Structure formats: C-alpha cells, structure tokens
UniProtKB/TrEMBL annotation:
Pfam family, one: DUF485
Keywords: Membrane, Transmembrane, Transmembrane helix
Chain segments annotated as transmembrane: 32-55, 67-89
Cleavable signal peptide: none
The organism of origin for this protein: Xylanimonas cellulosilytica (strain DSM 15894 / JCM 12276 / CECT 5975 / KCTC 9989 / LMG 20990 / NBRC 107835 / XIL07)
Name the record gives this protein: DUF485 domain-containing protein
PANTHER family per UniProt: INTEGRAL MEMBRANE PROTEIN-RELATED (PTHR38441), MEMBRANE PROTEIN (PTHR38441:SF1)
InterPro entries in UniProt: DUF485
Length: 112
C-alpha cells in the first residue's frame, strides 16, 4: 500500500478518496448495492404495476382461503426487504468492514 502524496490545499478526506484502498472499497460496495437495488426496484415496480393494471390476477384467491395473489406479493415485499438487509449485513460484516476498518486505522494513524 503506497502512501499518496498530498496535493497543495488538499484535505485528508480528499487524499483518502484518491487512494487505491478507498477506490477498491467503493467499487466492491457498488458491485453489491447497485444490482441488489435494481433487482428490488424491478420487483417493487412489478408489484405496483400488477396492482394497478392486473386487478383480476392480483385478486385471484389462493385455494378456498381469503388470501389473494396481491396479498402474497405485498407480503413478499416485506420478506425481500428483510432478506436483502440480512444479506447486506452479513456481506458487509465479513467482506467490507474489515477492510474499511484497516483503512480507517491507516488514516487515523497518519499513514495515508
């Protein structure tokens, strides 16, 4: 890990932002978050569009119960939110946070 030369008038934050370690962390974060966000938004908007334009389909009852396809899809929104949150927390704790902590220690120690 090479130290980054300080440019005139540059803050510590700007120097860290230019570092390879920070760029790698940001890239790894984006590779996880952007696809997850896109998938969730597609799922969310599909639900909204189906609720708006496919009333017959969404009001279809499951078996002899009062549970409808729309209700299951709506509950699925909550389930996917919790699953994505758990996946992100596990991924960040195991993969992203240790590297971020190491970078923070370098910055606070004046090594960057």
């Amino acid at each position: 890990m090479a130290d980054i030369a300080e440019l005139p008038g540059e803050t510590a934050y700007q120097r860290v932002e230019r570092s390879e370690e920070f760029q790698a962390l940001r890239s790894r974060f984006r590779r996880f978050v952007f696809p997850m966000t896109a998938l969730f938004l597609v799922w969310y908007f599909a639900y909204v569009l189906l609720a708006s334009y496919a009333h017959d389909f969404m009001s279809t009852r499951i078996g002899d119960s009062s549970i409808t396809v729309g209700l299951l899809f709506g509950l699925g929104q909550f389930v996917t939110t919790f699953v994505i949150t758990m996946l992100y927390a596990r991924w960040a704790n195991n993969s992203l946070d240790p590297e971020a902590d190491a970078l923070r220690e370098r910055v606070e120690g004046g090594d960057l």
